[in-house]
Amino acid sequence: MIKLIVCKNYDEVSDKAAELVLDLVKANPACTLGLATGSSPIGLYQRLIRDHQVNGTSYAQVSSYNLDEYVGLDISHPESYYSFMHRNLFDHIDIKEENTHLPSSQGDNLQKNCDDYNAKLAKVSIDLQVLGIGSDGHIGFNEPNTPFDSVTHIVELEQSTINDNARFFDNDVSKVPTKAITMGIANVMAAKKIVLVATGTNKAQAIYQTICGPVDEKMPASILQRHPEAYIIVDEAAASLLPKEEVKVEILNTANFDKNTKDGTVLIDFFATWCGPCKMISPVLEQLAPEYAGKVKFFKVDCDESQELAMEYNVTSIPNLVILKNGEVFNRAIGFQNRDMLIQFIESAL
Q: Domain spanning 2-235 has what CATH number?
């Protein structure tokens, strides 16, 4: 089951992904993490480092298993994934070197390397797997048409993947390795929880196909539809092709008020059917509700039908808009509000 989280930008995507990882590490200090490379998770790793430095969150008991590694690069090469992980995470937290694992692309017997990594993965249970996604929908280096039951294997990289990764090699495609060793899709799907991060319009088509398309080996990431707990965290650009969620402003009464307003950020429009300004605000709220889907819940309360609620929230004049945060009054706006004023009012709570 995919749980989609749409954020405004890369920083918010990184914040949310870090929140999920930190919740796990704090709840289970001896957890096992599956880690990814590339530009997408760098912001996540920066937040883990900052939290470690400021709050002292420890990784001394954490184990990690990386998705992949290039074939043909020595681990000392600055663009090897061994170097990437040390530069962007391992060297800045207290994780033990012996607890970090990457598939080896060294030596002449690459199949043995695959078998050895599969043997390691078979002995552990990854609690949370971090993923990026390629513009062609690959996860790890599992290119289109990789079997869903695949385990760690050697892959010939698609030209689109080589082109995407040229930015790490002086924008020279001739310097990009053409092969990699990667966890298979079955290895990825064995994780208890998956967190995929993606940003930018170049990922929009892949995200659309992953979430809305059929589960098909032509789109490797589409298999996440069958995972019990897969979070896909994207910015607005990466979500730009997804169908807009239909969100309506619901009318609440006393009976269903508490259960709908006790959690998160909630905007309540206390109105009356006979109030002219109330009628002018209502369609604007209907327009804004989808734009803030996932961040703010929008409700209306008819003051004539729910007089007790109106009194409880000190509604002595209308229009009367109240923002609740986890059931507590956070802000209030009285009188007519145009669209810009309503946006400013909503943004005050975010």
A: 3.40.50.1360
